[in-house]
Amino acid sequence: MFSGAAEQDAMANFCDGCDEEPVTHEVFKDPVTGEYVEHHFCANCPKAQGMIGHTGQEKPGTSQVAVVRVSAAGLGPCPSCGVTFARFRETGRLGCPSCYAHFEQVIGPMISRAQEGATHHVGKLPKRALRGVSMTEAGEERQQILKEVLGQAEERARKLASLRDQLSAALSSERYEQAALIRDQIEQLQSLFEATPDEPRPSGDSA
Amino acid sequence: MRREGPIREILSSAPAWLSGGGQDADVVLSSRVRLARNISGFNFVGKSDISERGAVMNLVRKNLAKAGVIAEDDKSTCWLDVSKLDEFSLEALKERQIISRLLAKGHRASGEKAEQDPRAVVVFRPGERVSIMVNEEDHLRMHAVRPGLTLDETLAEISEIDDKVENVLEYAFSPRFGYLTACPTNVGTGIRVSVMLHLPALRILGEIEKVKRAAADMSLALRGFWGEGSDADGDFYQLSNQTTLGKTEELLLSEIQGSIVPRVIEFERKAREKLLNQRREYTEDLVYRSLGILTHARRLSAAEAMSKLSEIRLGHSLGLLQSPDVSTINRLLLLVHPAHLQHAAGRLLNQGERKAARATLMRETIC
User: Any idea where the domains of chain B sit in the sequence?
Assistant: First the structure.
């Protein structure tokens, strides 16, 4: 059913079936029942019919391909730079800043695994965050700064929660110098957040 | 072979990080902090074509001048177009740890020739305490390095430059992921904090594995003298953070400077005491034998020279040797490498000639 070339070129950028479309699905042969190989298909490839199922589910009657994973969740290439998820997997490098937002759903957990479970940045903030604080009027630029730098309610809460977890860990292991640094950062972020309340989005999705 | 212009000036003196000074200099050779940054609105370097890389390079050059980070008419900073340098100069800059292998090689995507690839490095002189690589893996890779254990000041210095650059250029940033980098392993703070440790006694006593395990337990990396993928030439090890997201820069720094490094320093010093008190004859033999080789050999490989220099550096810290001093030993650790040897000789040398030149350098410097 599959050519040897497709097996060898497991990290191909383009669909193993039609060789034209970018890869959106990865199919893994069950490592228990047979040799472990990967196949890559675009969203509509006829050769992939009967193989692409749902994440982690076994497909009945196909012992040859027991484990199926939809890896890039149907995400196409980054609209800004054209990098595909498969290309990222091959090189380990994203193509542009917009890739982070475009692939967030799939790279978020990967980043977290590589970063001791961390999900959110809590360090240095660009200076434009401070410019946002000094703006008293809720104009478009201020809104932009909130969106691009400080984040909105959920991100803010996650950042503070992450720092508070680190603070308790530092205190319980008697790393007082580090605890003081973390406490400083919590205070700094809190005052920044208080000075720039998370406002309703222009789309009006909150009351 | 004598170089002209900025390269000749750079090669004519040793970088400040090899001065042998600073806190805990018996064990800590240097402290280094790197920030990775990208400019908003452009693809990352690996996905850019030549014209986009050229645009980024021009934008960076113009704005570093505007921000007061580089001064065109002032000799304290020099801008080097890496693509215009010859192989010898590239090798010399790599030996000084000013540029990386990737910057030296360029991005050879889609048939481009490396010499056409727009990339640069800014070197701060004298002392080379700061350098900024342009169009390496990220648009900007800014480094500060100082002798001894001085991470706070090193971070402060590079942060100040980062702030100045940010006054004139908007960095790619997201509230969730922080500073956005081409490789997600650098995302967040974009920081790498590292210290170069000299651990000869732990190696001699077979205790390096314990240091490696302790580093791994703290999610820190222990690499060789030349960084990623290198061996521990001359018993030098770089200890650095691997995590860049979810912790502040100060916390990442304190996890290294305030916690593991003092323990490793203590561990190495205890091992040195043990060598001196319990295995004195063995240790004296090792140190004086190395000194003998360095002062009498007629041919030396770079690896052998690094290894023997490491052992006399140990001898110096144990009080077994007064001369050469630490700054001379540190300087020799750089001068034994091919591009520096050839610069001193004023001509290209083949491998055999380099071995002879290296041995001559040692005999003439260590008396």
Answer: 5-272, 279-366
- Residue B249 with chain A: CB contacts under 8 Å: 123-124
**Which of A85, A106, A81 shows the shortest CA–CA distance to A41?**
A85
With CA atoms as reference, the chain B residue closest to A81 would be: B43
Using DSSP, state whether B348 is helix, strand or coil. Answer: coil
**Per-residue pLDDT tens digits for B48-99:** 999 999 999 999 999 999 998 988 777 789 999 999 998 889 999 999 999 9
Residue B273 Cα to chain centre, angstroms = 29
- CA–CA separation, A122 and A151 (whole Å): 11
Q: To the nearest whole angstrom, how far is the Cα of A74 from the nearest Cα of chain B?
A: 21
Pairing of strands B178-179, B173-174: antiparallel
Residues sharing a CB contact under 8 Å with residue A176, sequence separation 6 or more, in sequence order: A170
ipTM over 0.95: no
**Degrees to nearest 5, angle at CA A67 with A66 and A69:** 145
Q: Which candidate in A83, A88, A89, A96 is best for mutational testing of the B interface (most B CBs within 10 A)?
A: A96
Distance of CA A186 to the CA centre of its chain: 25
The answer on pLDDT for A64 being more than 50 is no
Contact (CB, 8 A) for B201 and B271: yes
SS3 for B142?
strand
DSSP character at residue B148: S
The helix (H) or strand (E) run that includes residue B120 is strand B120-124
- Determine how many CB atoms are found less than 10 A away from the CB of residue B279: 14
Element (H, E) at B57: helix B50-66
Q: Which of B362, B345, B346, B358 is nearest to B299 (CA)?
A: B358
Closest CA to B177 of A19, A110, A23, A45: A110
Among A121, A127, A181, beta carbon nearest to B178: A121
pTM reported for the whole predicted model: 0.83
Cis? peptide before A77, omega within 30° of 0:
no
A149 touches chain B (CB under 8 A): yes
B5-272 CATH: 3.30.590.10
**Which SS3 state, helix, strand or coil, does residue B198 take?**
strand
Amino acid found at B191: I
Q: Which pLDDT tens digit goes with each residue over B21-45?
A: 999 999 999 999 999 999 999 999 9
Helix (H, G, I), strand (E, B) or coil at B222: strand
